[in-house]
Design brief:
binds zinc ion; TIM Barrel; eight-stranded parallel beta sheet; binds D-xylitol-5-phosphate; alpha/beta; 8 strands; 18% strand; 8 helices
């Protein structure tokens, strides 16, 4: 049996209060967050603009947890080195961007960072098969990228199942992540389908308390993974 990575919850800072970020991060970390997810948007690849390497470096100074940097930008190769130097641990590019996946995998090795590939909801999963065994993370989007707080697109569940089957078939222990629309319900379903890395924005920072929200999500993914067929 292929060893899967442990289940991890990564709060997405896009949903946090940027003016009180340190505080939000400390609360999430104290409540057992396993990593932080940082959404970089360039206003071209997606219709929104967020932040760049300097912001990632500021976040890096606040935590030792892994930083999962989601590059929703048209030219990821141009900025790979800057985001690695800023302290990103995993750099996730989009398969729909202007990018040569093989070159980005090599760049990741040179920069000593993990490399992931993300798929928009309208991109067929087989687009990622050629690079599957070289990637450290496959990210299935549960929403159209650009904004937090959207509703999960149910077809993403089928994609998670398909990627899980293929990762197991090639013997890869890469993370299978789900990003967008993750709630305790969809976290349970996607864990059941084989996801290991759960990006949670609104479901952590959008309402209630961070600790309660993370506890709910944690128990959901554990229950889901417990049902998963191995
Ligand atoms: C959407 C981003 C997500 C977003 C998730 O484009 O990639 O990471 O922050 O937010 P929720 O969990 O609220 O859908
Ligand atoms: Zn994201």
């Amino acid at each position: 049996m292929i060893s899967r990575r442990p289940l991890r919850l990564a709060p997405s800072l896009l949903s946090a209060d940027f003016a009180a970020l340190g505080e939000a991060m400390r609360a999430a970390e104290a409540a057992g967050a396993d990593a932080f997810h940082l959404d970089v948007m360039d206003g071209h690849f997606v219709p929104n603009i967020t932040f760049g390497p300097a912001w990632v470096a500021a976040v890096r100074r606040q935590t030792k947890l892994p930083l999962d940097v989601h590059l929703m930008i048209e030219e990821p190769a141009r900025y790979f080195e800057a985001f690695a130097r800023a302290g990103g641990n995993t750099l996730v590019f989009h398969l729909e961007a202007r990018a040569d996946p093989a070159a980005l995998v090599r760049a990741g090795q040179d920069l000593d960072v993990e490399v992931g590939a993300a798929l928009r909801p309208d991109t067929p999963v087989d687009r990622v098969w050629p690079w599957l065994d070289q990637l450290n993370q496959i990210m299935v989007m549960g929403v159209h990228p650009g904004f937090s707080g959207q509703k999960f697109i149910p077809e993403a569940l089928l994609k998670v199942r398909a990627v899980r089957a293929r990762l197991d078939a090639v013997g890869s222990s890469a993370d299978l992540s789900i990003d967008g629309g993750v709630t305790p319900e969809t976290a349970l379903e996607t864990a059941e389908a084989g996801a290991t890395f759960f990006v949670c924005g609104n479901s952590v920072f959008g309402h209630g308390t961070i600790a309660d929200n993370l506890a709910l999500l944690r128990s959901a993914v554990q229950r889901g993974a417990g049902h998963a067929v191995r």
